[in-house]
Write a structure and sequence with these properties.
- It is built from ten helices and twelve strands.
- By secondary structure, it is an alpha/beta fold.
- The strands form two sheets. A six-stranded parallel beta sheet has the order 2-1-3-4-5-11.
- The chain binds beta-D-fucofuranose.
């Protein structure tokens, strides 16, 4: 299949980055001596999912729960994340944790962590690596399965649809996995793909360009809700009806996403739950104590279609 990227047609779209306040460490706390010292590099604050994930991590890794957390917001930059990991290693934290912005390119710093005997935990997205024991464990969603769930719905409910795939950050575990999963089931329906960088503005601008490049597109598979909401704006701006002329399928299940689903603007939303701070705390305690952990802890999610109830929508925590 030939795919024409639309990225080249667009001016660079910069994500609005909400700065995170640097974390205060639990210095004065009585329990600080025994606290598990965690250095955590968060990849950014690109949207609602990430904001909820950071809030969940912060709420769980407190001095009251036995943690001293240093959180670094690394603005979608791998170099920034690597620099943060090096700082944490030099500080001799008990565990280094990070949400890798992309999958490749971590081996050197992971080797440094291993040489310094600092265990590493991957949070949310995964990595590809040539090292045998690059990290202790990963906690996060199964992105391939999320993509498959979206693809299965499209295959069953819109087998004739012509799909534009609105990708997340290229090379990120969430993009790669969701695309592989979706394409395994509905790849032959995809007429074009381009990245919206997981942001609402990116989703809007890239979809606007895609609807011009491929006027016969009548379904958008967005790799997250923020981009899906941007896509809905672009569909309307193009004089077409979201959910009728152009269907939109998405991943995350933010409250705003489910509201759009209930309103008929989206057709399907696969849940990806960011609220796993407490599970992460359990994993970090075990790793810090040198106890065995599973290779992966999968955070599971649901699937919502137009039968979503108002109670389900308002019960969302993110
Ligand atoms: O779906 C998206 C965010 O890595 C699972 O990143 C995460 C994704 C999430 O930007 O909204």
């Amino acid at each position: 299949m030939v795919r024409r990227g639309v990225r080249g047609l667009l001016p660079a779209v910069l994500a609005a980055v909400v700065a995170l306040t640097p974390a205060a460490c639990g210095g004065g706390d009585d329990t600080a001596g025994d606290a598990v010292r965690v250095g955590y590099s968060q990849l950014s604050a690109e949207g609602s999912w990430r904001a909820a994930n950071t809030a969940s991590v912060r709420a769980a890794l407190t001095p009251e729960h036995g943690f001293e957390l240093e959180l670094s917001d690394d603005q979608q930059k791998q170099e920034g994340q690597i620099a943060a990991l090096r700082r944490f290693i030099a500080d001799d934290v008990d565990v280094v944790a990070f949400s890798p912005v992309v999958e490749d390119g971590w081996d050197e710093v992971l080797r440094e962590a291993a040489d310094a005997d600092v265990p590493v935990v991957l949070v949310d997205r995964g990595i590809t690596t040539a090292l045998p024991d690059a990290y202790a464990t990963r906690i996060g969603a199964d992105f391939r399965s999320e993509g498959r769930r979206a693809g299965r719905w499209v295959r069953r409910n819109a087998p004739g649809a012509r799909v534009f795939e609105l990708q997340g950050t290229l090379g990120s575990g969430a993009q790669v996995g969701r695309q592989e999963g979706f394409d395994a089931l509905a790849g032959d329906q995809v007429v074009g793909a381009a990245t919206g960088g997981f942001t609402r503005a990116g989703g809007r601008d890239v979809t606007a360009a895609a609807l011009e490049a491929w006027p016969d597109v009548d379904l958008v598979f967005a790799h997250n809700d923020d981009m899906a909401l941007g896509a809905v704006e672009a569909v309307r701006a193009a004089g077409r009806r979201p959910g009728v002329d152009v269907r939109v399928v998405s991943v995350d299940a933010t409250r705003q996403g489910l509201r759009a689903l209930a309103a008929g603007d989206l057709d399907l939303v696969v849940e990806c739950d960011p609220d796993f701070g407490e599970q992460l705390a359990g994993v970090l305690r075990r790793v810090a104590a040198g106890r065995p952990v599973p290779a992966e802890t999968i955070v599971r999610g649901d699937v919502f279609d137009r039968t979503v109830t108002p109670e389900q929508v308002e019960a969302r925590t993110y």
